[in-house]
Amino acid sequence: MEPEYGETWTYESIVGALPGIDVSTRAAVFIQFLVFEVAVLVLAAIYDLWVAAAAGTVAVVVASAGSVEMLRISRFVRGEAVPESYRRLLFGSSVEVVLSVLAYVALITHLFVFDPRSGTPLLTTLFGPEPPILVVYLVLLVLWDVCYRIGTGWWASVVALWRSVRYRFDPATARALQRADLETMGFGVLQLVLVPFLASAPVLRTAVVGHVLAVTVVTGTSILFLRVRTETATPSSSP
After folding, report:
1. Residues 51-75: pLDDT tens digits?
2. 196 near 172, Cβ under 8 Å?
3. Are 34 and 120 in contact (CB under 8 A)?
4. Least crowded by CB within 10 Å, which of 59, 112, 157, 194?
5. Please, how many CA atoms are within 13 Å of residue 149, restricted to the half-sphere of its CB?
6. Could you tell me the pTM of the whole model?
């Protein structure tokens, strides 16, 4: 059964609400990757920006992988009889969008205000002193996609820790939720592939590494609580 609106990631709601378009979420992820990657390669060919294209491709892969992880997390969670408060907090609160906007605004401020005052801007390193308008447009669009997945990772990890501290679960449910937490952690670790492209931006590099460490610690703590507090004879319940 398809999840109802209000119980979905914002990403899922948008895909499901597109008028006249009926595609599976898996197909939507493939289309997302294909459209962005083709755009990256076409603009790289037009403006001879092949070094930047490598960074763009990695960012597109991270964003697409984030979509896959969101779907896998939701499948593990929705497949179990978890507390309604946890489901609604995770999927229906849209807090991940707020966190994503905060991350995106911070990134834009860094790229266009802080970075130019600190030496050679990252955008200049990748795209030259006068980046083409279409390239900048695509860059900002892909960066938003990445920031949205980062915001989702933050929220999924925080809510997971709250859930693991607040509730007890039977072994089968606990295992499924541990897998969901491992998906969150794995996507965080995957984002480290962005670090080599941030050599000239130490603040961004530190932010990415710090973000990955934070998500790893929080989800790891959630998994530990799940294992310690797993029930042995009763179904999931509030303590």
Report:
1. 899 999 999 999 999 888 888 888 8
2. no
3. no
4. 112
5. 31
6. 0.86
Extract the tokens encoding 74: 């939701």
Tokens of 120: 């050679």
In the chain, the amino acid numbered 74 is: S
DSSP class per residue in 39-97: HHHHHHHHHT-HHHHHHHHHHHHHHHHHHHHHHHHHHHHHTS---HHHHIIIIIS-HHH
- What is the gyration radius of the CA atoms in the chain, in angstroms? 19
Residues in CB range of 37: below 8 A, 6 or more apart = 57, 60
More confident residue, 2 or 65: 65
**Do the beta carbons of residue 215 and residue 153 sit within 8 Å?**
yes
Residue whose C-alpha is closest to residue 154's, from 109, 204, 216, 106: 216
Quick one: tokens of 44?
């790289």
